[in-house]
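Project channel, design review

CF: Before we commit to the Methylobacterium oryzihabitans constructs, I'd like one complete example in the thread so the newer folks can see what an input/output pair looks like. Taking Biotin/lipoyl-binding protein.
RD: sounds good, go ahead.
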Amino acid sequence: MPADRFRVPSAAWLLATWLLAAWLAAVAPGVCSAAPATVQARKACFSDAVRVTGYVVPRSETYLAYPVEGYRIAEVLVQEGDSVSAGQDLVRLARIAPEDPAGAGPATRLPASVALKAPEAATVARSTAQVGALTGPQADPLVRLVADRNLDLMVQVPSLYVTKVRQHAATRVLTEAGELRGEVRVPATDVDPATQFGRALISLPAGAGLRPGLFARALVDTASSCGLSVPRSAILRRSDFTSVQVVARDGRIDTRRVTVGLSSQDDVEIRSGLAEGDTVVANAGMAF
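CF: and here is what came back for Biotin/lipoyl-binding protein:
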């Protein structure tokens, strides 16, 4: 009886072992044949950029005034925001009659009327002209004009990046209308001690349809480099070194130290440790 008691469990154990071995034999080939996803190291160029924000400002402005006494504003022909052409009349002045109490000086020697004209095609940025107002050397400018083709983006550059934002650096300007290409025309030369920001000017392309005062963002390229590229997911970062998993011709997977450089949203520049065409595991965390 004692012997029979042990033979039954032993047979059941052997049967279970046989079934497990059969299941593993059926499943294991599919498991072993699943290879990790791989990519090849390829050439690519990268750039590093500083994000800044600012406002569109005119590069040059024209102020129209008539600092001669003896005239009143008779007509104001434009409003703020109007586009004007070269030679267009903006404000017309009329000579004050000799019997007018506001008249002063020998008015008879002055022309009966004067027209203030736009010197070039521009936009009226500001107008303070009012019908009936008197002219004179102490009066404020009547019209301020901004030439549309000469606009800059004035940006605030954090002190940490002032030395990186250099003259002629390529820039992408992001506006509500889309992306524009510009470059740094005037780099920041000093930093405000209170705000720790420097001020730089980025040239904007002519005919972009922008107006002074508009807000915009910009990405200023501060560094660029061309080399080999692999996906970010292929990089293994440890406290003492950075590596990728390289697939050899015989199928072995080796760990290889690399030196990384600039990066983009999806890829990383490899400056040393790989050769063009090397096969690496696309997601190193799934290699083992």
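RD: helpful, thanks. The radius of gyration is 38 Å.
CF: The longest strand covers residues 42-58.
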